[in-house]
Amino acid sequence: MSRILTYREALREGLDEELARDPNVVLMGEEVAQFNGAYKVTEGSIGKMG
To answer: How far apart (Å, rounded) are the C-alpha atoms in residues 40 and 11?
Structure first.
């Protein structure tokens, strides 16, 4: 079954999957946690991953 995601949601989902799958994966950048990231791509990630 297919589903419709926005580009932002697809990026967030992919990042979350890889961060959970591999402990060597890190997410770095300006405003990743502050303001839920630029364009809200990392929204909620800081709460899940710390």
So the answer is: 10
